[in-house]
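Reproducibility note. Readers wishing to regenerate the assembly model reported in the main text can use the exact inputs given here. Chain order matters: entities are listed in the order in which they were concatenated for prediction.
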Amino acid sequence: MNLAIIKYNAGNIQSVLYALERLGIQAEVTDDAEKIKSADKVIFPGVGEAGSAMQSLKEGNLDQVIKDLKQPVLGICVGMQLLCNHSEEADTNCLGIVPVEVKRFPATKIGEGVLKVPQVGWNSIYDLKSPLFRDIKEHSYIYNVHSYFAEDSEYTIAHCNYGIQYAAAINKDNFYGVQFHTEKSAQIGDQIIQNFLNI
Amino acid sequence: MDNQNNTSPVAQPSPLGVGGEPGLFGLTKRIIPCLDIKDGRTVKGTNFVNLRDAGDPVELGATYAQQGADELVFLDITATVERRKTLSELVKRIARHINIPFTVGGGIKSVEDVSVLLNSGADKISVNTAAFNSPELITGIANAAGSQCVVLAIDTRQEEDGEWYVYLNGGRTKTDKKCFDWAKEAVERGAGEILLTSMNHDGTKAGFALDITRKLSDNLPIPVIASGGGGKMEHFEDVFQQAHADAALAASIFHFKEIDIQDLKHYLKERNIAVRL
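Running the prediction on these inputs yields the following structure tokens for the assembly.
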């Protein structure tokens, strides 16, 4: 299988590569439009800030390339957020592939404390409905590091709750996105990546 | 290894964090073993007789990951000129083999040091003395790589006046800065987590410093990792229930198998503390 990882200025993707390597999967990290278009599957990673990540995509003309992809695409973390319509982070217009808004966790007061933002740590996913979660049990734990989340919608394929119920994963047509870090989510993360590759 | 969740009771996402206290919804409390590293090897002995090489941080870390550790911290105390290269090579090996997040700390002085380690595969970087001496280091790392990867480590000691003061250089140098004030400033500068070690409690196995941990955890908008003093399972219960820590870190009790991570997590779960099992 020919797997492409989209290369753009959006943080360190070494961990994603290592995770694939642990699964015995080779991938090519590339910003070459033809290579991305001809891949069997595409992973769209991202760590960092949505505004500059989107800017970097546009500069490389990768925004249109991604929108036109017909093969399964998996956005991870900021990659997932960029698949959406718009993000509150730096008031960014995203790719608009999945018509969903990305918002910031509200500074909610909880008892004597506050809802800490970013959400850092292990939380559970539930209401799983996609081949992406084949063999994954309801309420499995996944690792999160994020301040922004995709709003719940008809495109939600997994829920998570952090002060508010949000979309831990989304899907529209051939585009999939997960907010959590599959590459850091122990066996559950490995299984989800494997499931994506089997779609 | 089998999927651990398949054998565990299903955890319900609950609006409650710990035993009746309003908490952080489904987010679990984290258990973090800390490994001290020198010249690419773990320095403290361990009781892991089944390891081929207990001095190999990667093998020990992978063992902890399999036992259910939520994250790992690698603290480098190498003092040689070769340290940067040795450490970045070790970080690459860790990132290749371990599928949970890890933090690297020890003697990190510049944004450039941080970039090398993050590009090698570290998830977070902890800074201590250098950040105190040059607080713009925190801002620099946060701007370059995001707050989520900046862990501010604070070594603190409660003095006779009852106040908690910041200590530097591995606890050798006292400052006049109060722990809470420094933590608050660090948050404003972009720190993403606080790793709080009480020097009064470290090594005692008599329990964590509940009051200062709670003060930081309740008053700062970022997670607090409690460190120093964890010796029994109930100490972990206390630091989560009473001090509202987001995570608890320990070293020798895990290395010497005085506490098994799975046993600890089951113990906490039975006490209504959300943990990943």
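We highlight two features of this model. The helical segments of chain A are 14-22, 33-38, 50-59, 62-67, 78-83, 186-198. The two ends of chain A are 12 Å apart (CA to CA).
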